[in-house]
């Protein structure tokens, strides 16, 4: 592999990206034209009605147009403060003021809306999303998860949705009570239930029964004062109110420390009786190294909102455009609903835990695709896991290799099973990992089980 290294999302990577973008931006005289050109290349966007509701909420609170220079300047300041806090060793967001909420709605909420809707669509396509959703969203903020669920339910056009939510910030709850009812208007069979001002970590929150979807998005990373065990105990309290057919969805940032903490929590919750539905799939019996498991989903860049473009209309405006959507997630059920592997499915495949015995050889393997392409201009790189190897394994595909079979690696979804034939086993000393290097004889297929 030489000097070509997989790309990873780290703080230094983020800073290098921002430095490069800043240099590029200084050469541009029309900031907005650059953003709009970028927008044309992507399709992901939040509904225009929801964009306008966010703008209307800012206008309702400030008594000024959302494009007001004073309003935009203050939102910029709060966005920068939130971004700085995120990279602290113990991140802890504060949402005590109106502009804290405006900054969140402007910069973070659009991507969070899209990623949760993506999860709902994934579950619906798998046939496991309940027809009638009774949602309890923990740490709901301004209602991002309920809004995303309403958005999907409008497109789904079947079943019903009842929304329960818990949030301790009064400012967030005010935004929730403005945005959610307005976004529901004009629909049928979508209702709001209990929306509580309560701290999810304490014992006095009212918990409804027969929950079919329990969600917790970008909340646990802010509870840095709790241990993994304490977080698991807290979550199991809420899980006891989930129906036997219900789903538990936990989403955290893709950044290294939060992603790994989520995998540790996943292991703890498994030990307490929950079953992992996605993205992990334990194809073989063995030991999975959760302590170093950095795995996340990545969606195409989203279109900037009108508000983002207004905020970016100044020097170094790139700092207020947030198009990247990367997140770690785990989905649990209270009973095992994963489909069993077909008989003999793994018979011809070498376990990833035995790759050490096949260095330099061509092998066949079967594993779950646990990353999008994290490679470089010369090589595509995908993390592969079968649930029973403590050593990382990467599928390496030279970009000059263009046979049809290899394209399955790109088309397959995150968490989908890949069957790979004729890849050569190499040891990546710098990464302490195995590389499975593809060649002209390599064949791939994706299995949606």
UniProtKB/TrEMBL annotation:
Which InterPro entries does the UniProt entry name for this protein? Answer: DUF8157_C, SAM-dependent_MTases_sf
Name it.
DUF8157 domain-containing protein
- Region of interest called Disordered, as start-end residue ranges on this chain: 1-41
* Domain DUF8157, chain residue ranges per copy: 353-443
Query: What's the source species for this entry?
Result: Methanospirillum stamsii
Under Gene3D superfamilies, the record lists: Vaccinia Virus protein VP39
Q: What is the lineage of its organism?
A: Archaea, Methanobacteriati, Methanobacteriota, Stenosarchaea group, Methanomicrobia
């Amino acid at each position: 592999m030489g000097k070509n290294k997989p790309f990873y999302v780290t703080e230094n990577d983020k800073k290098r990206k921002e430095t490069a973008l800043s240099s590029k931006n200084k050469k541009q005289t029309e900031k907005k034209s650059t953003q709009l050109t970028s927008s044309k290349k992507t399709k992901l966007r939040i509904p225009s009605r929801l964009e306008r509701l966010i703008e209307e909420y800012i206008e309702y609170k400030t008594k000024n147009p959302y494009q007001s220079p004073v309003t935009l300047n203050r939102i910029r300041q709060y966005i920068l403060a939130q971004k700085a806090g995120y990279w602290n060793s113990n991140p802890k967001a504060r949402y005590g003021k109106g502009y804290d909420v405006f900054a969140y709605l402007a910069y973070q909420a659009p991507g969070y809306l899209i990623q949760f809707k993506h999860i709902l669509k994934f579950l619906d396509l798998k046939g496991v999303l309940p027809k009638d959703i009774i949602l309890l969203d923990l740490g709901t903020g301004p209602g991002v998860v309920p809004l995303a669920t309403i958005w999907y339910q409008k497109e789904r056009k079947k079943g019903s949705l009842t929304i329960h939510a818990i949030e301790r910030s009064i400012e967030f709850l005010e935004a929730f009570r403005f945005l959610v009812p307005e976004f529901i208007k004009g629909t049928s069979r979508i209702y709001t239930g209990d929306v509580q001002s309560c701290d999810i970590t304490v014992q006095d929150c009212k918990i409804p029964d027969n929950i079919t979807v329990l969600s917790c998005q970008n909340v646990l990373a802010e509870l840095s004062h709790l241990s993994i065990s304490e977080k698991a105990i807290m979550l199991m309290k809420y899980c006891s109110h989930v129906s036997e057919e219900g789903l538990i969805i936990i989403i955290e940032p893709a950044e290294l420390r939060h992603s790994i903490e989520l995998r540790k929590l996943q292991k703890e919750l498994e030990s307490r009786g929950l079953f992992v539905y996605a993205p992990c799939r334990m194809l073989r019996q063995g030991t999975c190294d959760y302590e170093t498991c950095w795995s996340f989903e990545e969606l195409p860049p989203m279109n900037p909102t009108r508000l983002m473009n207004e905020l970016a209309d100044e020097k170094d405006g790139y700092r207020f455009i947030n198009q990247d959507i990367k997140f770690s997630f785990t989905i649990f059920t209270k009973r095992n609903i994963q489909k069993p592997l077909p008989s003999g499915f793994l018979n011809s495949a070498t376990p990833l835990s035995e790759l050490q015995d096949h260095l330099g050889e061509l092998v066949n393997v079967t594993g779950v695709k646990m990353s999008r392409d994290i490679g470089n201009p010369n090589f595509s790189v995908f993390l592969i896991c079968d649930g029973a190897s403590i050593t990382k394994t990467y599928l390496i595909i030279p970009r000059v290799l263009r046979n049809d079979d290899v394209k399955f690696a790109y088309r397959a979804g995150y968490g989908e099973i890949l069957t790979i034939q004729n890849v050569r086993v190499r040891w990546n000393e710098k990464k302490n990992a195995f590389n499975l290097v593809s060649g002209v004889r390599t064949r791939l297929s994706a299995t949606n089980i």
